Amino acid sequence: MPRSTSSPRLSRRAALQLGGAALAAPFLARHARAATTRLTFQLDWKINAQFAGLFMAEAEGLYADAGLEVEIRPWADGVNVASEVAEGRAHMACAEQNLILGAQAAGAPIKAAATMFQASPYGLMAPAGAGLSGLEALRGKTVGVHVDGLKVMALVKGVNGIEEIEVVEIPYADKFARAVSGEMFAVQCYVIDEPIGVTARYGAAPEVLKLSDHGLLSTAQTIMASDTLLTEQPEVVEAFLAATFEGWARVLADKPAAAEMVVGQFVPDGSVYKDVAYQTRCLELLEPYVTGGTDDIGVISRQMWEEAATRMAEYGIVEALPDLSTTLADTAFVA
User: Could you tell me which of 97, 214, 112, 122 has the C-alpha nearest to residue 159?
Assistant: First the structure.
């Protein structure tokens, strides 16, 4: 996925709807409310740089300028982020596209309003020198994945017409050691994060295959809001999104400084993410997922969303689809 060669910005549609500014700051200043609106945002993982745009918006006062007091809540064992929003324990949250679709199909009153990642960071990694040059390199090989990766690999194999890949379920613990020993040719990873730890442990960067380059269509860290909030306070949603993606634009403009901010102000003591170099590298790896190869950030393409949903249903990643015409919110970040 190509990287943007210029500074990322809000989408053109978002800029027009948010007052014609190229970035969110003028909009936020003009639309700040006298009364503060409190919002709870539920993350789908622990506090680290993959959510840096939100932390930047908080640290630089972008939420406050918009009249928002935002509680950013980390994920914990047992938390279903879609249920947190649907059942009123959080106003907004983020999750993978398939989890949002599944919740909507089950009747959850939520909609996707924007996305932090334009593609899923699911991938495979193999030891340096293994020859993981592309999907064809997996023919006749054994690949280890977690339970959530079984249907993803079925999709990738089906879309590409390659069945000669043996896919087996493996636990998370010490999984890369299975590839190093030769038991597996490659193992599942989250490409914006796990290869960093492998590099540190084994002294060489693993070879990585991005599944988004091979048929896995999906948004990730997709922002959802409750139908109630979208109906009763749409301006609050728009203000939050504008501040968040202005935060992301600032993060990508200076990744080392952003990593220092995240680690210094937000990552709790004792966390494995309390490492500036690690978090800086994470931001470098996730940049193409945020930008999607363009200068516009945050926008969900309706066409891609529906195509991805249909493909997920075909391969059983989601058991049933909701009415796709009702799954996306009418915000400046849906096109």
Answer: 214
Whether residue 217 contacts residue 77, with contact meaning beta carbons closer than 8 Å, is answered with no
Q: How many CA atoms lie within 13 A of 68 on its CB side?
A: 30
Residue found by looking up tokens 């340096």 in the block: 128
Q: Measured over all CA atoms, what is the biggest interatomic distance in the chain, rounded to whole angstroms?
A: 64
Strands (DSSP E) found in the chain: 9-10, 37-42, 68-73, 92-95, 110-117, 122-126, 142-145, 166-169, 186-190, 207-210, 220-226, 296-297
Instruction: Give the Cβ contact number of residue 201 at 10 Å.
Output: 11
Q: Which amino acid is at 210?
A: K
pLDDT tens-digit readout, 246-298: 999 999 999 999 999 999 999 999 999 999 999 999 999 999 999 998 778 99
End-to-end CA distance of the chain: 21
| Chain centre distance of CA 332 | 19
CA atoms of 88 and 144, how far apart (whole Å): 38
Residue 208: the pLDDT is 98
Please identify which residue in the block is written with the tokens 């950030």.
297
User: What is the C-alpha separation between 333 and 236, in angstroms, rounded?
Assistant: 14
For 277, residues 6+ apart whose C-beta sits below 8 A from its C-beta are 259
Looking at residue 66, its pLDDT comes to 97
Concatenated DSSP letters of 1-57: -PPPSS--EE-HHHHHHTTS-SSSHHHHHHH--SSPEEEEEE-SS-SSGGGHHHHHH
Look at residue 175 and tell me whether its pLDDT is greater than 50.
yes
Q: Give bridge partners of residue 125 from the DSSP assignment.
A: 187, 208
Environment class of 3 (CB within 10 Å of its CB; exposed 0-12, middle 13-18, buried 19+): exposed
User: Is the pLDDT reported for residue 33 higher than 50?
Assistant: no
